[in-house]
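Quick entry between incubations.
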Amino acid sequence: MKNAQSKNKPNAIRQFLSSVKLAIVLLILLAIVSIVGTVIPQGQGAVEFAKTLSPAMFRFLSTLQLFDMYNAPWFRLLIAFLSLNLVVCSINRFPSTWKRFSAKPAPDRSKPFENDSMEDFLEVSVNGDKASKRVEKILRSNYKNVRQKTSDGNHYFYGNKGRFSYFGVYVVHLSVLLILVGGLVGSFFGFEAYVNILEGEKTDRVIIRKTMRPLNLGFEVRCDKFSVDFYKTGTPREFKSNLTFLVNGKDVRTNDLLVNHPVEFGGITFYQASYGSVAGKEARLRIDKKSNKPVSSEKTVKNNISYPFPGGEGTYQVIDMRSDIMHLGPAVLISIQPKIGKPLEFWVFKNHDAVQKKLPPPMLASPKFNPEAFSPYRFSLTGLETVYYTGLQANRDPGVPIVWAGCFLMVSGLFVTFFMSHKRVWVRVLTRRTKTRIEVAGTTNKNPVGLQSERHKLISSLKNEFGKKD
Amino acid sequence: MDSSQILSYTTFVYFGAFMTYLLGMVMNRAVLSRLGTYLSLLGFTAQTLAIIFRWVESYKMGIGHAPLSNLYESLVFFSWTLMLLYLILEWRTKNRIIGPFVTPLVFLAMAYASFSPNISSQIQPLIPALKSNWLISHVITCFFAYAAFALSLGISIMYLLKRLDTVKKNNLFLRLIPSTAILDDLNYQMIVIGFLMLTLGIITGSVWAHSAWGTYWSWDPKETWSLITWLIYASVIHARLVRGWKGKRIAILSIVGFACVLFTYFGVNYLAGLHSYAKK
Ligand code: HEM
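Done. Structure below.
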């Protein structure tokens, strides 16, 4: 593209803002500052990182807003500058592109023929006027805007192809802006939130990640069922929630939610993000009585309900159930009301033997972790009901369609700019004494190889038309 | 014989291809260079079969998925795409001189995959987040981009060597390298293909992230590094439009660009992020 500023005196600021040099500098600058952002942890990771810094260093980096760089005003300013550069440049160059797009070069130009090797011609014994009719037919079926001129018994043609490719680059540049706009729309009008729902329960609120504030959805989500299955190695293969959406307490829609298969309801998109389990309301306990005649019983007990000891020594009840406590696995807290003496409480782990090895000695010695604290009874936890909860991500981002549109335009635009070109061909039908000579020439804005094959194609279809072999 | 065994033999075949291409260039023997092509084709065929076998093996193990899921498989796939693009280029340009500059990369990727103690060649099951057709398109487009950029790197190195030649003159083996104008043109073509593919790669990656996590862009280090790479190559494309930025500067920028590719691929594992699957 030539610079389109010839008439007006070039305005220095506009010149600067439209220069490709500035674009290169800005692109490289953006690349460099982005590197900084990957070296200094951003957002949540920044807190940990900041602890390792000296106070002076910390102050320096936080003054430059380097802990949340991509949201920092100066970073946005850089992007705004790039956009401005893009807009000014496009506006500046558009008129000259338009001129080239709508140019109507004379059919009888001779310049294109000067550079070409003179292999691209054929001689036929049909008279010039008739030959030119047939040439025109071929040109019209292969090219656009075919124009013709006749002078001195010679016929001149012009045709072209792919002039729309001039706009490919504008589409690419527009798509960059569109993606940026989509991002802005998302950051102004969207949110990212999360919520955990126990299997069987429902909620009408989610927690916004950025502010940690709750947000009322305006409808309810219930997790009817959560299921997960595993590979032999123990890593999860697939997990899935059956969700029901309720409006005014009534079921409206039921969906399966899987990883990579989000579900939308009421303008909010739900993603299967994580899962976990918590203890339910039932545990299975084995109680061994040490004596001359050992007695052992096993029984399913409910949370917060007292059960009598078989020997009538008092009652016990489970007052807390945890699916995982201190990373030591499932445990229940047992409270004992003896007939005589003080009540006591202690934890019983499911993996008792393994836990014994891991607990530090002071804790081992404590009656709080001794399943035999109420002798002669010894408690073992053999089972614990667990309930899954599903971890959902709930987002709204009205910018997404704009971003996808931008992406689509970018790829199409790149394709057009890189692989298409404006090909212009001239054909002249010259009447000689006995024969008629047909010559072909062409020009292109890029891709000379493509032009060459274009000319070969045209020549061979002309040869076909006039019954000549290649 | 299982697929990873075939792949480690392929490594040696590619090494042979590299050596014969190199000798062919240095000694100016067309026969040797032609042998390089044959070895490359042999290696490429074996590698293609091995990739297919691996795919079948994963289905036999009951954890079927395209072999693109861990560092081992991605390295194998990278060398496969690079070899494919190189062979197409050799066939299109009818010139074997780029061989000695590209095949070492093919060989190194395979050698790293096969012989590094940190890389497991086992077929691993996919975690749910990685089960996505978008992810497969993402990996394929990214690796075609990386391969095109690797070719551009090879061509850029040739370009810089050739320039040395025009300064010093009559150096034997550099004479075979095409003129700087042809190299510059070829280099740009590779960058353009790589840029288009990288754009597609970033977009498909975003679509995948959007369906898996709900955000199409989260500035995680791997994403950011692919953007950095993209920005560098975008500046290369524009640099062509400014007078005086042809040739040498493009070649240097292309080398910088490929360094970014390498960092996006490997270096990022030293920074934390979502793409942790690349760790092993
Ligand atoms: C990230 C942002 C950008 C992308 C992805 C992008 C992409 C492209 C592409 C693919 C081309 C076509 C090159 C070719 O014809 O081979 C191009 C050309 C061009 N770009 Fe950009 N560009 C960006 C930013 C900018 C900016 C900020 C400017 C501001 C001056 C700019 C100015 C130009 C100009 C003047 C051309 C030449 C147009 C022509 O040859 O007709 N670009 N750009």
